[in-house]
Write a structure and sequence with these properties.
It is built from nine helices and 14 strands. The longest helix has 13 residues, at 224-236. It has one domain (2-261): Metallo-beta-lactamase, Chain A. It has helices at 32-41, 59-62, 65-72, 83-88, 148-154, 168-173, 179-186, 194-205, 224-236; strands spanning 2-9, 12-18, 23-26, 51-53, 75-79, 98-101, 106-108, 111-118, 125-132, 135-140, 159-163, 211-215, 247-250, 260-261. Strands 6-5-4-3-2-1-14 form a seven-stranded mixed beta sheet. A seven-stranded mixed beta sheet has the order 7-8-9-10-11-12-13. It is 28% helix and 27% strand. It is globular, with a radius of gyration of 17 Å. The chain binds zinc ion (2 copies). One zinc ion is lined by residues 10, 13, 58, 60-61, 142, 216.
Length: 267
């Protein structure tokens, strides 16, 4: 199983999880032409994508889901509680292509997928754990706070793509953000800060976590180096050495990221 971010920011999100026989996207929140070009750069035809797993109805996650479904007949998996809101954003699609999911594992090709709820200001937002044999990875972005329930879902993952949206002080000091927006982002249904991402990593390191991909960084209230250094320093103070005990990568907002090959030790 391999994992690569195709885009990750408040402006658009799309993650590819694939092996030889099974290829899935988590969200398709960038333009269709961009998805097609990035897949082709990875030697994957868009028609080979077996499914899109949608996290929630915000446009930075669903922008091209309907278009992919129409153009390539891609199946779309949506969580039952948010189905109406999500499907509304698709435009006209064949309803037989839409698969409703629940809080139970299901199979797509060679992967076992388990959705779990995360707190966010959408109708209902989910993260996903994806397993191939005994290897598990998890994806969780758009999270107000990391609940105990989320930690128990992420536990045992070799790799997590985890939101590290903002530096709290940088957000608070941002003169271009109205107070109402700051409060929304900082709330329990907003987005996850660098420090809260670091705290989750600290916990997960006790359960075999080898690789973190920090994702959904705000382009106004964070920088890749601030994100990386905040996490590295926090973990250092907890006796976890980034680069030795756990690796930390920052997803690019708009470029194809590092391709992670999930084997027992991650390459
Ligand atoms: Zn988002
Ligand atoms: Zn969102």
């Amino acid at each position: 199983m391999k994992v690569v971010t195709l885009a990750s920011s408040s402006k658009g999100n799309c993650i590819l999880v694939f092996n030889e026989n099974t290829k899935i996207l988590i969200d398709a929140g960038i333009k269709l032409a961009e998805i097609n070009a990035k897949l082709k750069a990875l030697n994957i035809e868009p028609g080979e994508i077996n499914a899109i797993l949608v996290t929630h109805e915000h446009s930075d996650h669903v922008k091209s889901v309907g278009a992919m479904c129409r153009k390539f007949g891609t199946r779309v998996y949506v969580f039952n509680e948010a189905k109406q809101e999500i499907v509304k954003t698709f435009g006209n699609v064949d309803e037989f292509k839409i698969v409703e999911t629940f809080l139970v594992p299901f199979q797509i090709g060679e992967f076992i997928i388990k959705p779990f709820k995360v707190p966010h200001d959408s109708k209902c937002c989910v993260g996903y754990s994806i397993s191939e044999n005994d290897k598990k990875i998890s994806i969780a972005t758009d999270i107000g706070f990391v609940s105990g329930e989320i930690l128990s879902e992420l536990k045992g993952s070799l790799l997590v793509v985890l939101e590290s949206n903002h530096d709290e002080q940088m957000l608070i000091d941002n003169p271009n953000y109205p107070a109402i927006l700051k409060n929304r982002i900082l709330s329990n249904h907003g987005h996850l800060s660098n420090i809260n991402c670091a705290k989750a990593i600290e916990y997960l390191c006790g359960f075999g976590l080898k690789q973190v991909v920090c994702a959904h960084l705000s382009e106004e209230n964070n920088t890749p180096s601030l994100c990386f250094n905040t996490i590295k320093k926090y973990l250092f103070n907890k006796n976890i050495i980034v680069g030795e005990n756990v690796k930390v990568d920052i997803a690019s907002p708009n470029k194809i990221g590092t391709i992670f090959n999930i084997v027992s030790s991650i390459n």
